[in-house]
Design goal:
In the N-terminal section; belongs to the cytochrome P450 family. Heme binds at residue 404. With 460 residues, the protein is of the alpha+beta class. The chain has helices spanning 26-37, 56-61, 75-83, 95-107, 110-114, 117-134, 142-159, 173-189, 193-198, 200-226, 236-241, 253-284, 286-299, 314-327, 359-362, 366-369, 407-424; strands at residues 40-45, 48-53, 68-69, 140-141, 332-337, 341-343, 347-349, 354-358, 425-429, 438-440, 444-446, 450-455. Helix 6 runs antiparallel to helix 7 (142-159), helix 10 (200-226) packs across helix 12 and helix 12 crosses helix 14. Bound molecules: protoporphyrin IX containing FE.
């Protein structure tokens, strides 16, 4: 078959395309290059060939799991020191992935997640308390408080453990250790291996961070084993005692610990970043803010917010989806071809190529999203808009067997948090002239985005 060459910015002899990107900000680099090169382009970085897919047609073709899979390359390899064969960083053919996936899928379903309502509300109330105490004069750094929220929710709902980030001046040491490891892993994956070997001190610091995090998870585990809580609805009992329906095995102790770290990594920056983006959009588009608040007032009013309200908060849910479509926390998704193949019937790739899916450009493709793809408009999903999208159009949570296992968890947590915030507070931007910029770690979030909050009249 005839293939069409994949465009590539002219590489330099020694550095390949390193000069064409900012290695610490791959998302923004890829959006900028997509503007120039269109639906697909290629980069040569640290000895590896990266193929970036930017359009609906090219990305959608890689969701064919008979021809493509999630590769454990690049940053995923680096993250294995912390996350091992946990769900996020294991190969699909690793035994531990199958065991954990089968054991955990049912408890992560919407019905399993509803049991976590009280735990989530407990932490959301702590955010409300903090915002009340800060009062309308103080600025709130969104990424800080939404990180506190997301981290504490996972700690409590997954392991029955309180990180108590709302009771600290800064954040729990685990949060900082984790951020350091995520940033360092990203950097290591863009360096040549020789250079990584020479960076002895940063490697030692990384190991110390990883050990501290593993030690904390082990402590939480030992505590639960010594003091069983048979009635707890958190995930720790499932992790420790549930049996794989296929092999009859429980998860190994080491794998439980890797998955504990995995939930903390996968669940806190993503959820926290999405809430930050969401409030950015709502505050930039006051009529959308009003619509979301009106829905909250109609559905929940001043009364207590209960699990039965959840399915009725449609605008709130699609406001979150639209924030994810516009610019989600996971900017790039990774794939590779199982055999040499043609992407979209024309672009030749080999299994050694790392295929990156540029989710922002993909979810702005005007062929799917129309001429107003660059506008923040939750209405596009209403009245069947979501159901009638072409196949695989909305993929903020990934695809296929390796899609986000925490989707229902994240959706419930975010809908709950947004509803409680809109029910009780009037939120405004601390600086009305703020322009969105992106702060990258493993995920992206709005950089230095600050808000001010005051109680809505009569709501206290
Ligand atoms: C995987 C997005 C929240 C746990 C993924 C993937 C995406 C994603 C795109 C696929 C990654 C890949 O293909 O490499 C999101 C977004 C979230 C979110 C946008 C919030 C807005 C959560 C939460 C948890 C979680 C709250 C846990 C409680 C995981 C795990 C995986 C995963 C364990 C790996 C699944 C596997 O490969 O088997 N997520 N996620 N995520 N996510 Fe999430």
């Amino acid at each position: 078959e005839d293939s069409v060459p994949i465009p590539q910015p002219p590489p330099s002899l020694f550095r390949g395309n390193l000069g064409d990107i900012d290695p610490s900000n791959m998302p923004e680099s890829s959006w900028a290059l997509a503007e120039t090169y269109g639906e697909i382009f290629k980069l040569q970085i640290a000895g590896r060939s990266i193929v970036m897919c930017n359009s609906y047609e090219t990305v959608n073709d890689t969701f064919d799991w008979d021809r493509f899979e999630k590769p454990i390359m690049g940053v995923f390899v680096e993250l294995r020191s912390l996350l091992g064969d946990g769900l996020f960083t294991s190969r699909s053919d690793e035994k531990a992935w199958g065991v954990a996936h089968r054991i955990l899928m049912p408890v992560f379903g919407p019905m399993g997640i509803r049991k976590m309502w009280d735990g989530m509300m407990d932490i959301i109330s702590q955010l409300v308390l903090r915002w009340d105490r800060l009062g309308p004069q103080n600025e709130i750094l969104c990424s800080d408080d939404f990180t506190r929220l997301a981290f504490d929710v996972i700690g409590l709902c997954a392991f029955g453990y309180r990180f108590n980030n709302f009771y600290r001046e800064g954040t729990h040491p685990f949060v900082n250790q984790m951020t350091d490891v995520l940033v360092e892993s990203g950097k290591r994956s863009n360096r040549l291996s020789l250079e990584n070997k020479l960076r002895i001190f940063s490697a030692q610091k990384n190991q110390a961070n990883v050990k501290a995090m593993h030690d904390l998870c082990d402590e939480i585990l030992e505590e639960r084993i010594k003091n069983p809580q048979p009635n707890s609805t958190d995930l720790l009992n499932t992790l420790l005692y549930s049996k794989d329906p296929q092999t009859g095995e429980t998860m190994s102790r080491e794998n439980v610990r890797f998955n504990m770290c995995t939930f903390l990594v996968a669940g806190h920056e993503t959820t926290g970043g999405t809430l930050g983006f969401l409030f950015y959009h709502l505050l930039k588009n006051p009529e959308k803010y009003m619509k979301a608040m009106q829905e909250v007032d109609e559905v929940v009013g001043e009364g207590p917010f209960t699990v039965d309200h959840l399915p009725k908060l449609v605008y709130v849910k699609y406001a979150i989806y639209e924030a994810l479509r516009f610019m989600g926390p996971i900017a790039l998704n990774h794939k590779h071809a199982l055999k040499p193949t043609l992407i979209a019937g024309k672009y030749y790739v080999e299994p050694s190529d790392l295929i990156m899916l540029n989710l922002k450009s993909f979810m702005h493709d005007p062929k799917v999203w129309g001429p107003d793809a660059n506008e923040y408009r939750p209405e596009r999903f209403l009245n069947g808009g979501y159901e009638n999208l072409p196949p695989n159009a909305f993929k903020a949570f990934g695809d296929g067997p390796r899609a986000c296992i925490g989707r229902a968890f994240a959706e419930q947590e975010m809908i709950m948090a947004v509803t409680v915030i809109l029910q009780n507070f009037q939120v405004e931007m601390a600086d009305a002239s703020y322009n969105l910029w992106v702060q990258p770690t493993l995920t992206i979030k709005p950089g230095d985005f600050r808000i001010k909050v005051r109680r809505r009249p009569g709501r206290n």
